[in-house]
Amino acid sequence: MSVWGTESWEGEEEEMLEKFRIDRNHITKDTVITVLSGAGISAESGIPTFRGSGGLWGDESLARIATPYGFAEDPERGWRFYDDRRKNMASAKPNPAHLILAELEEMGYDIVIITQNVDRLHQRAGSKKVIELHGTVWEFRCMNSRCELKPFENYEVPLSAIPPICEKCGNYLRPNVVFFEEPLELVDIQAADSRTKKTDLFLVVGTSGIVYPAAAYAQIAKFNGAYVVEFNIEKTPLSPFCDLSVLGPCGEMLPSFIREAICAGEK
Ligand code: OAD
């Protein structure tokens, strides 16, 4: 594994840039590129991460809200938390890391993003092929699992009624996100799984790599022969599975890597 972006890296920089050039020669528009993104990619847009200093889950009562029982015991408190997150996310803008990924897709590269983020900043940047592994705060669904209401979009900020009510059965609605201890949607797991297994270049951006199954995709990609590059401000448990760790804020590092390693010849 190589590390780029640390002071200790300095001496090897030339070799690393050379490596970029070698890799770049192999990256074409047929190269299957997959990105696994986490909260760190949206940090520079002003959306707090979950762990680390200032992380949302540092407050245990907030972490409890993001469980099925914690939300159900007080839906009003739960919705106040999600209403605040929606306000924060609505005022946030995609940063250069989101934008460069959307640009690659626009340029015709075969790129799919598997995101753990619920903020939809990838889509707002222009990315179309996004698997929302943990759902999104911009959809609601009914808390009554027997209700036939399908998940639907809602972008009202702030919400006019808290908690919102299901018009079909009268129960409370909930955000269409995956809470702790809940299973992911099978269709998303299958899509992420099959994409990862055929990936040539796998980029792991701004995730602590400790929440599964998302974290497993970097390992599955590696075991299936992908070249795996991590972008983070620090090393993570996924670093040993990566061919290259690029340390530093991904809003700077990801665009510079992509311009240097992938699309240096593009206008
Ligand atoms: P975390 O909060 O666990 O980790 C954020 C990662 O981003 C950390 O590794 C940081 O070092 C890194 N980071 C922070 N700022 C960065 C920057 N500017 N550039 C690059 N990296 C940066 O967030 P996730 O890994 O997304 O799940 O957490 C995974 C899941 O845990 C979330 O989707 C959420 C949470 O519980 C659910 O709610 C189901």
Which tags fit this structure?
seven-stranded parallel sheet, disordered N terminus, single chain, binds 2'-O-acetyl adenosine-5-diphosphoribose, 36% helix, 267 residues, 10 strands, elongated, alpha/beta, three-stranded antiparallel sheet
What is this structure, in a nutshell?
By secondary structure, the protein is α/β, with parallel strands linked by helices. Helix content is 36%, strand content 18%.
Model description:
The protein has 267 residues and is α/β, with parallel strands linked by helices. It is built from 10 helices and 10 strands. Strands 1-10-9-8-2-3-4 form a 7-stranded parallel sheet, sandwiched between helices. Strands 6-5-7 form a 3-stranded antiparallel sheet, with helices on one face. Helix 1 (13-26) packs across helix 10, helix 6 (96-106) packs parallel to helix 10 (250-262) and helix 8 (186-197) runs parallel beside helix 9 (216-223). It is elongated. Mean pLDDT is 90; it is low at 1-11. It binds 2'-O-acetyl adenosine-5-diphosphoribose. 2'-O-acetyl adenosine-5-diphosphoribose binds at residues 38-40, 43-44, 49-52, 55, 66, 116, 134, 178, 206-208, 211, 231-234, 236, 249-250.
